[in-house]
Target: F-box domain-containing protein
Amino acid sequence: MQRESSFSLCDYYYYYHSHAAPHTGADSSRALNVNKVRPACTLDSFREDIFAFNLGQPIMHTNSIWMPCYECSCPNHHLPPYTFAVEHSLSDDPEWVHLTRSNNPPSQYEETVLSGMTSSYDQQIQSIDMEKSNLEAFSLFLQAQNIAVSQRMLVLRHERVRITEAVRECRNLLSPVRRLPLEILNHIFLDTIEFPVPRTQIVRDSEEEDPSELSEWEFKAPESSLWSITGVSKAWRSASLSFPRLWSYVNIIITESNFKDHSYIRQLGRQLDRSANYPLSISVCRIVKESAPQDLPPQLAAVLFSFSSRIQELHLYLTLSILFQMSDMRLSLPSLECLVVLCQDRVVRTSENLRLFSYTPKLQSLEVID
Model:
């Protein structure tokens, strides 16, 4: 396969000489204007010629060792410098003052000298015009080259993205995670679980209106990573389903949208079923900023009744009204060891005693947050 080359100034002159109309004498003009590159060609066709010559086949078809050339022995590789002699005008030359300041005719000798000077100047003008035409044509060539370089850079960028993605896929297949034992993999999964519901204490301005109606805590519903993990691969799904502890950390968020239909409760039921008989850690939180029911949802009451014997750790971030409703349920929690209660009401206007549960023989830790 043939390696592509890049145009230099030398290549450009070769391109011109091989395409221009033939000349017949040493004095023939070889100005590189657009019309002389090819008979009756247009600027567009000239650019097409440049692209066709320079772009060739896709560059990645071969192991290119192309490098930009900055030095070359060819005299056409660099733009020529210009040094022009400073000549005095005839009106400033004492030899011609008698003619420039009068209407006298020149002598035969002076006429011969002036004709020679005029011929010399005409040749210089032709040389300048030819050089100017060469540079104009070369400027068009450089513009085409610049476009060609930009296109090649774009192609290379796209190819680099494609190859980078291929490398990423290969490295993923070689990932050490694929060789991790199920026990270690499940412990990693366990670290992705956010439990209980995160809470942040709010610092309020002393001038804020009616602070008694506002909670001092802000809660953020965490996104469960379990459903994402089971969707990664068959192996990850199998590993997660074989580890009941992973499913035993349950955040229950009370909002209108969650308990509007049965989809949230169904998902909650699947998680509890996958926890098998492992002791449960449950966090129940009413999100104040969202539209939330004022009463304990009946579906949630049914869940608490069904799994009460397995609850080992319980966090309740609820209003006083809902806490009293839970008290009326007289739940028996024989496995409960840790209980955290946070009342979302800023001011509690009641003197009644609150007995949340009827039976908690193993309770070891109680935290009440006001």
Summary: Residues 108-173 form the longest helix (66 residues).
